[in-house]
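Pair request: fold both.
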Amino acid sequence: MPANRSALLRRGIAAVAALPLLTLAACGYGSDSKDEPAEQKVAAGSEKIDGLDTVKIGYFGNLTHGTALVGVNKGYFQKALGATKASYQIFNAGPSEIEALNSGAIDIGWIGPSPAINGYTKSAGKNLRIIGGSASGGVKLVVNPDKIKSVKDVKGKKIATPQLGNTQDVALLNWASEQGWKVDAQSGKGDISVVRTDNKVTPDAYKSGSIDGAWVPEPTASKLVAEGAKVLLDERDLWPDKKFVITNIIVSQKFLTEHPKAVEAVLKASVEANKYINASPAEAKAAANAQLKIDSGKELPAEVLDPAWESIEFINDPLAATLDAEAQHAVKAGLLEDPLLDGIYDLTTLNKVLKTAGESPVDDAGLGVK
């Protein structure tokens, strides 16, 4: 990591701007996964890990959380945890997952970078650690082709993001600034109108004409394309090597300290799930879709599932340098005061798992525990 960036982070104060960055929570903590497949059941004769009856895992019902979806559906987590029961909660928004982690309602979770940053800074670095990566990519700017034919046409238009200060909201505000456009981050008003809209209703908002496009993760982007929208920009094209973190794995610091073997088991399962995804993409895609149906009652049609899955890369590297950059984008937008992110990562256990699996270690960009 560049020395000036490291110095900036160390001078930073772990505080969040007064506006409600990443605090628009979904109702409650989340919903329990139901209709348990046979692969998720505890194997006869297995033993508990760290003496635990249960490890509570959280994730979103999004394809960008495909590692978790496949890990649940194919039984990787339960197999790794032995007689310790893996239980699951599904979330709609990062803030509610952070709240669940803080309260002990979950122990480990799959989550986007912005809520992880916000949760860490709001607790003065005391509530969570990022312990692994999960996915890169899977975010697009999709637009109404009748109204927007090029980047310059975006000016003056209404563009949706999932919520104020979330990962895609920050990305859109940063991109707009790079075009030379001025937008008030809190109100969303300016040279473009940023319309904060829940991903569940964004397709209807597009169909009604109340938005002209959206900067959204998958599968929402592909759902809009199925409604006639066009991809104007794939966010991968804005990042070095076309990689940026979209999903991390977090754990409560208390759980990490008290139950390291359970954490190792979950990370081992995550690495195995990613290996399966990359070795058998068609089968893994089907497993992820099957788990979405179990969790939500609906599976994705092929015209949405196929392009969405294709745009996501499932990796174990948390791409720490890109999380650092995303934090600075939030600072630039006025959504976050300079955060002290030192210690947000603890990749020791992941690198142990990767070494055992014969894979290369990953880096924390200088933001790991000392």
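--- second member of the pair ---
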Amino acid sequence: MSAPTPTTLTGQLVIGEQLIPGRIDFTDTITSITPQPDAPDTLIVPGFVDAHVHGGHGADTMDGPDGVRQLARFHARHGTTTLLPTTITNPWERVLHALNAVRDVMRSGMDDGPDIPGAHLEGPFISPGRLGAQPPNTVLPTSERVAQVLEGGVVRAVTIAPELPGALEAALAMGAAGIRIGVGHTRADAATVTAFLSALHAHGIRTCSTHLYNAMGGIEGRDPGVPGALLADPHAFHEVILDLLHVHPTSFLLARAAAPGRVTLVTDAMRAAGLGDGDSELGGQRVVVRGGEARLEGGSLAGSLLTMDAALRHAVQSGVPLPEASRMASAVPAASLNLNDRGTLSAGQRADVVVLSPALEVQAVYVAGVPVPGVGA
């Protein structure tokens, strides 16, 4: 990343639970925030943190370093300043290859994209009976595979089905290394999920639902299922794909009510995001995009076409005040990943800043104080 120059912006700053007219000064970090009553109606929010994104603008995490860079640039133009490139269930060697590609990009950095503090390993430690749009290449989280994950040093979040043999031992080992443990793509019962989460929390390990409600069954009065166990937990964070296709606004508001301060917006975007209608691909499977929906040939949803700015707009349209919706897109996911240097507009934090119009359209993006080119293009 090139060296930033001192920058000053004025507008309505999202700070805590308030919109405060003011001025923000920054280089690579925020140096000061000053009230300014006559500031314009432009909105200034913390940069978005997307912990679950497979692809965008024709590229996918599984494509290698160039693919990671291409998808990252696309999402940066939509306000994402921190991003975890996310794998999909593939043969294990291909998954390791993708993780190595993410590590290459992390080491070289990007002058025109978001910060990449690690990868999200979504497959292949998932249930073969709850694949969703994942291909059928699941494997068990053996001690050897977990050791390979830890040796690579790139995984920041992992998804695992708690009912798999060795799942708890694997989750404890990865969690002890600072990896956030996500529960998803699972056919576990509520008791298994509750016991799994409790064991992890007893060791101070951060947990999360992987795209809450999706690929985990439903909630019934006599059978709370995976979503019920997750929402009843007092510590777990919750990913929500708020494209209004994967999750109904009322279900989103239920998660918000059950887990205040722990709902995180994610895109789960696939390579077709930003390209419009046509044919695409996900994990070697043909995907058809029509009318803003990406589906496998069998008709099931195949990831999303979402961007984080659109997710923010959907949250506000669902009745969530902008400051709270902003936290769901920035501060909460940062906290879930133990990234304490970003997610809020406050002195000393990274200067990851997004400028929005009053209609919540992205006008400018800064990653550690450096403007992202092509915003609005």
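Observation on the second member. The chain has ten helices and 20 strands.
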